[in-house]
Write a structure and sequence with these properties.
By secondary structure, the chain is an alpha+beta fold. Helices cover 40% and strands 28% of the residues.
């Protein structure tokens, strides 16, 4: 899979989030930013993203995924937000 394919899958399955994807093959780093994470624990946030990719993980198309999640307010001061 390519990063743009992973991004398209996530955008079609989780509303109101922006995704920043890096990686190649079956190993990806996902940064997700959105209101969907407001009020959720870190574990629940990760579960939300994993659930959106469960078919691809089960098939082996995706193997190693690193996930970081932020609300829009958190993203403003996140060290990963380098622009």
């Amino acid at each position: 899979m390519q990063p743009n394919e992973v991004k398209a899958l996530l955008e079609s399955r989780i509303d109101g989030c922006q995704f920043h994807i890096q990686g190649e093959g079956c190993n990806f780093q996902v940064i997700a930013v959105g209101d969907a994470f407001e009020g959720l624990s870190p574990v629940k946030r990760q579960q939300l993203v994993y659930a959106a990719l469960s078919d691809e993980i089960a098939s082996g198309a995706l193997h190693a995924i690193s996930i970081k999640t932020f609300t829009p307010v958190q993203w403003q001061t996140a060290p990963e937000n380098v622009q």
